[in-house]
Amino acid sequence: MNEMIRVAFVGLGAMGLPMASNLLTKGFPVTGFDLNTNALSALEASGGKSAGSAGEAASGADVLILMVVNAAQAESVLFEGGALEKLRENGVVALMATCPPAAVEAIEERVRRAGRRLIDAPVSGGVAGAKAATLTIMAAGSRDTFEAVKPLFDALGDKVFHVGERPGQGAMVKTVNQLLCGVHIAVVAEAFALASKVGVDLDILLQILSGSAASSWMLKDRGQRMLQPAPEVASAVDIFVKDLGIVLDAGRDTKAALPLAAAAHQMFLATSGRGDGHEDDSQVIRSYRALNGIQ
To answer: If you average pLDDT over residues 29-34, what whole number do you get?
Structure first.
């Protein structure tokens, strides 16, 4: 069965490479492309094939997985890089990057006109989830298309959802997820900044809050890293500059007011603007410290 689904994988970054490796582990043939030659070597070491271009990777493939940075990169790969026309007739493009819902709808229309299908399937779970094959996958597209690619999704994640029949709906679910994640991180930093003003021990505060009704997954995960001066980067500040920007675009497109998302976005923007865009996203707390005169 697995040999029948030939996979092209474009975007072998921190998440894409382990995802491609998990497909290989489950027996799917994978041909990959990335501008990073080290990533291509790693793919070959895992049993995959490397290609010299996205078009070459997609040639004759049944499914083209795009794990790129944004919608602009997806469009470049599909329409300028020639990957779409190299994908077999009626083949499936699995767009797994975080993109604005409106952009996904526009891409789907062009894919459909070219005689191919698109499944809008962003993921949540980060690098850890990609490595452990425990990603949450939020897929939108026709039921037939979803069923065709579900064996691949099951190899990549353990929480696979069909969230709707229309591409763009998956992107919206991911957008809502990122709204909550970004606001939760920012509000933890805000709470810690308030406690810092009167010298409360933040280690003890974190223990108290983690076991209270105020707790959240983000509090327990990012709170610990906020107490470190330079934690290892699990997800960068600039990711939330981008993702909360997508949230606000979605709000504008649907005429939904998102004041909390807007405030959180400003704090991540400020952190990036001060030169900390590549730091761990927990370090949005540095902007709260600067704002409040906390050393």
So the answer is: 97
